[in-house]
Amino acid sequence: MKPKHLNVRIAQCDLIASSSPCPRRQVGAVIVDPITNVIISEGYNGTPRGSRDYFCGGLTCKRTDQQIKSGTQNDIGCHHAEMNAILNATRTGNSTFGKWLIVNCDPCLMCAKAIHHSGIVKVYSPNEGGAGLDYLNENQVKVVSIKT
After folding, report:
1. Are 31 and 99 in contact (CB under 8 A)?
2. If you ran DSSP here, which 8-state letter would residue 138 be given?
3. Would you call 112 helix, strand, or coil by DSSP?
4. Which residue from 42, 99, 103, 125 puts its CA 20 to 30 A from 25's CA?
5. Contact, 127 vs 144, CB < 8 A?
């Protein structure tokens, strides 16, 4: 993928993040076909499709209310952007095998496992560290640093 196309996709990732209703942090993710440069799926952190609550806790973020550190206790709160992008691809019948993921924060461990298992081969993220990036590196998913 040419740098100009990658930069456009990174900008789109940030724009998609702005759709997130999360008061804590807005995260966006896009899954790209590296051969055609086409986005095959996108996602942002938020409640499950069609759910009642605008925020996970109704009007507030459950993770903030319970003082949960970012990247931990993933069973509480919204779906993560990476997971939403993978699930949206599945919902529409698009393969993630051999594709690239661009995300404007580093994946947590749960999302890293889903990324690896879904066949995504390269992840562009801020690359600030953490268990998710460690997992990706240990499992031969290439991680490339970006500025968002």
Report:
1. yes
2. H
3. helix
4. 99
5. yes
For the chain (148 residues), the mean pLDDT of every run of 10, in chain order, is 90 94 88 95 86 65 78 72 96 97 95 97 94 96 91
Rounded to 5, what percent of the chain is helix, strand, coil? 30, 20, 50
In angstroms, the Cα distances linking 57 to 24, 45, 51, 129, 140 are 12, 14, 12, 28, 36
pLDDT recorded at residue 62: 77
DSSP 39-96: EEEEEESBSPTT-S-SBTTBSS-HHHHTTPPTTS-TTSSSBPHHHHHHHHHHHTT---
Q: How far is CA 115 from the centre of its chain?
A: 9
Burial bucket for residue 148 (CB in 10 Å: 0-12, 13-18, 19+):
middle
What does the DSSP 8-state code read for residue 28? E
Quote the CA–CA distance of 124 and 126 in Å, as a whole number: 7
Angstrom distance (rounded) from CA 40 to CA 89? 7
């952007």: which residue's tokens? 81
> How many other CB atoms sit within 10 Å of the CB of residue 3?
7
